[in-house]
């Protein structure tokens, strides 16, 4: 079964997604690089590629492709919570602290292939691929993204 069909099947039966059932959902999807490879978007205006695979009123599923040594913008997710599964490669989740004059780097968390981590709406972060190999991550957001903000960190 194609990954898009799996995603549609899983989310046709899931009424709500939260931290408790995110791992079970990823287990049902069991995404591999071969499953998602044809859905990867190469970077255009950003350092990374991004492709929305599924979206309804409750959830948004997207695929992120991070070439070697690339990163996302520093951002939050507004009112959405997210669960990120490392399909291929590894990622550093760079966490930032919000202040009156912007954001500043706080710490990083390392996640290898096969790991699942979460970001709450108020989490300010960027994802960085620290390796010579590509990184691919599958993201589930609930509710769908829409009110997030992009930040410029202190130098």
From TrEMBL:
GO terms for molecular function: cysteine dioxygenase activity. It comes from the Bacteria. Transmembrane segments: none annotated. The lineage of its organism: Bacteria, Bacillati, Bacillota, Bacilli, Bacillales. This is Cysteine dioxygenase. Keywords: Dioxygenase, Iron, Metal-binding, Oxidoreductase. The keyword rRNA-binding does not apply. The keyword Signal does not apply. Its EC number is 1.13.11.20. Belongs to the cysteine dioxygenase family.
């Amino acid at each position: 079964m194609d990954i898009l069909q799996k995603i549609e099947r899983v989310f046709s039966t899931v009424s709500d997604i939260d931290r408790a059932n995110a791992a079970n959902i990823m287990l049902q999807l069991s995404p591999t690089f071969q499953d998602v490879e044809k859905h990867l978007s190469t970077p255009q205006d950003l350092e990374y590629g991004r492709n929305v695979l599924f979206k309804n009123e409750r959830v948004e599923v997207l695929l992120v492709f991070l070439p070697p040594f690339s990163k996302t913008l520093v951002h939050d997710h507004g009112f959405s919570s997210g669960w990120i599964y490392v399909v291929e490669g590894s990622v550093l989740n760079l966490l930032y602290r919000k202040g009156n004059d912007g954001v500043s780097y706080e710490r990083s968390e390392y996640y290898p292939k096969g790991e699942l981590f979460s970001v709450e709406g108020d989490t300010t972060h960027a994802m960085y691929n620290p390796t010579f190999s590509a990184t691919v991550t599958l993201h589930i957001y609930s509710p769908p993204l829409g009110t997030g903000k992009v930040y410029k960190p202190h130098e």
